[in-house]
Structure formats: C-alpha cells, structure tokens
Write a structure and sequence with these properties.
Length: about 200
C-alpha cells in the first residue's frame, strides 16, 4: 500500500498524526507492510548532490528508500546508461536502501494537443518506466502541473494516463499522480481521474 505524506497529515489517526510531525520536508510515507512503516525521501531535498551522494545521504540519515528526481536537471534522467543504472542499484543495495519512486515531471505535458508532441511524450513515458524498472522502483510519479482545467485538457490528461498505466501494468509498476495544479487537486478530481482511467496501476 502506498501512502503519500500529505494523506498522513490529514488522516484521522493519532498514530499517523504523531508520525507526521517527525517527517522531514519532501518526505514520503511509502508503505505499510506487516505493521512496519517505511520512509523514503525525495532527492529534491539534496540540491547540488550527485545521485550517488543523495543515496548515501539518505542512507546515512536512516531512510529506507529514495524517491529519485528524474529530470534533465535532476539526479538522473532517461539518458543514464544501463551500466550507471546498475551501479546505482548496487550502491543502494550495499547501503541497505532501495529506490521506491522515480519522480518524473511528465504530467505537465499530458495536456498538449499537438500530435507530434504527444507521440514524443509517449516515447518518453516508456523510457521513464523502463528507467524505473531498471532502478527497481515501485512506481513512477506524474506531476500534473498547473494547466487550465478545461474539458479538453482533462480528456487529454486522462488519455495520457491510460497509456502510461497500460505500459506500467506490463512492467508490474504503479503510476503515482501527485495532487498538484488545476487538474488533480481535490477528492473529487482524484476520484474522477481514478474512475476515468480505470487501472489498478494508478494511485494518488
């Protein structure tokens, strides 16, 4: 089960509310398995660090996992070599830490109407999912951005999410949508997205 930090803060549970006070900024409460709470940190918390330095820092602090920032100016991007992907996984394993999430910014372009741009976008979706798989991550994050909430934008966003989820299902991955911007920001908009996409791979 995947839980977002923001849901922790609002949960009607004294235990979770107490835990939320201990979390660092940009921390995600990732999983509850057999009664054990596991914590991961988004590497945005480590500006100026290399991917290796961010993993080492997360392990030193005591996190169970890392949600790595996947962007051209992030800690990794889709052009990272297979060799370097393996090297990162081996480093994490040696430190007793895992990659839980691959934090992409893909959703910001899911509403583009240009057919050529959408084709390019879908190729990047596949590349990002493959990167998440190579790192042993559980899910790929989508960041919806702050595009205008129009009927056309919602439809294009849903269609892109459907494609992403089909590809994720083939790889045994989840797709995690961050609640951000005008498209996915409330209980109603989250439920609408879940219903319209209709995939068990999609989580909020």
């Amino acid at each position: 089960m995947l839980l977002n930090y923001s849901s922790c803060c609002t949960a009607q549970s004294p235990f979770l509310n107490s835990l939320s006070q201990l979390l660092l900024p940009r921390t995600c409460l990732v999983g509850v398995v057999a009664g054990l709470v596991k914590f991961s940190v988004f590497t945005l918390a480590f500006p100026g660090y290399t991917a290796e330095e961010a993993v080492r820092a997360a392990a030193k602090i005591g996190y169970d996992g890392v949600d790595i920032r996947v962007r051209e100016d992030g800690h990794v991007y889709i052009d990272i070599s297979r060799k370097d992907r393996r090297r990162l996984v081996e480093l994490a394993e040696s430190l007793g830490i895992e990659f839980y999430g691959a934090y992409s910014y893909l959703g910001q372009r899911f509403t583009t109407p240009d057919p050529g741009e959408r084709e390019k976008l879908f190729r990047e979706v596949v590349a990002q999912l493959d990167l998440a798989m190579d790192l042993g991550a559980v899910y790929l994050r989508l960041h919806p951005g702050s595009g205008e909430r129009s009927e056309e934008n919602v439809k294009r966003f849903v269609d892109a999410c459907k494609f992403t989820c089909r590809e994720a299902e083939d790889r045994g991955l989840y797709v995690g949508v961050e609640t951000h911007g005008e498209l996915v920001y409330s209980g109603d908009t989250c439920n609408l997205l879940l219903e319209e996409v209709g995939s068990e791979a999609l989580v909020i």
